[in-house]
Amino acid sequence: MASEGTAPPVKVEIYDQVYNLRGVDAEYVTRLAEFVDRKMRNVAEQTSTVDSLRLAILAALNIADEYHILRKKYELLAGEYLQRADALSGALDEVLEDGRKAG
């Protein structure tokens, strides 16, 4: 979330606490706050913890876990696409080279 000096603050509520946040896109900031609120509430349902700081830490750990899993999947897919692109590039180079030899 990029901080913007001229953007008006966006009032959001996360786990019954009100925050005034700034960002370039107020709708995006609101969606992020709603996401964090849902994560905290999901963690609260699964644990007996009522301490909001502990819930925030557990929610942050869940979000970090999801992020790292998605990043690993992205890196694997990106690697596969790069390998395919290299193979296709090599094949194209061969076809072009054969065309030059024949022509």
Written account of the structure:
The chain has 103 residues and is mainly α. It has one domain (10-102). The chain is 70% helix and 10% strand. The chain has a two-stranded antiparallel ribbon. α1 (26-46) packs across α2. The longest helix has 51 residues, at 52-102.
Summarize the structure.
The protein is mainly α. The chain is 70% helix and 10% strand. It has one domain.
User: Structural class, from helix and strand content?
Assistant: mainly alpha
Measured by DSSP, the beta-strand proportion falls in 5-15%
Element string (H = helix, E = strand): EEHH
Shape: elongated
Distance between the termini: 56 Å
The helix content, as a percent range, equals 55-70%
Find the count of extended strands (DSSP E, 2+ residues).
2
Number of domains: 1
Output the strand order for the largest sheet.
1-2
Main sheet specs: 2 strands, antiparallel
Tally of helical runs: 2
What integer value in Å does the Rg equal? 24 Å
Query: pLDDT average, as an integer?
Result: 91
Which tags fit this structure?
103 residues; mainly alpha; 2 helices; 70% helix; elongated
Secondary structure elements and pairings:
Blueprint: E1 10-14, E2 17-21, H1 26-46, H2 52-102
Antiparallel strand pairs: 1-2
